[in-house]
Amino acid sequence: IEALTFHIVMSGALLGIAIGLAVGFPLAVAVHEGGHLLMVLCLGFHCRSYVLGPLEISRGGVHWNRKWSLVHYGGLVHFEADEEVSLRRFAVVLAAGPLANLLVGVLIRYVWQIALLPLMHRGHVTVGPMVVDMIALMNLGMVCNILPFVHRGRLSDGAQLLLLMKLARKV
Predict the structure, then answer these.
(1) What is the pTM of this model?
(2) What mean pLDDT comes out for the span 48-59?
(3) Which is nearest to 20 in space by CA: 109, 141, 129, 142?
(4) Which of 21, 64, 104, 169 has its CA 20 to 30 A from that of 114?
């Protein structure tokens, strides 16, 4: 009976992790790219395209076009500026993605600890703790994009910031 109980508990935990990953990763990418996009728009840049997984939304003249592509697996915000972009403004756009993930990850954990966990103990909330934890962890994990690295030929936000700092020293 103890082995059966352990198996049921582990199956539930694995299911919670799987659901958390399936929901958490796309959500974390959406929050990350949304942070970049929000800052692009706040700073008055022109968004040329927004990619989130297989969905690409791009500007064609005055209209926005949607297309599905299996080439993309993460996210991307492609933007342009009318005038010469200051390195500081570009750095703010780069930092906005990881900052958005940090804020959302901390907010999810805070809401879970303060509001939902006590309700779950009383039987009012049935959302699995593993699912909420995985969503929060995925958002907090995306903060690592601030570290400088290259993956599949694409520079992380941190690698781009590092290049900006090197460029700023030369100017």
Answers:
(1) 0.80
(2) 89
(3) 129
(4) 21
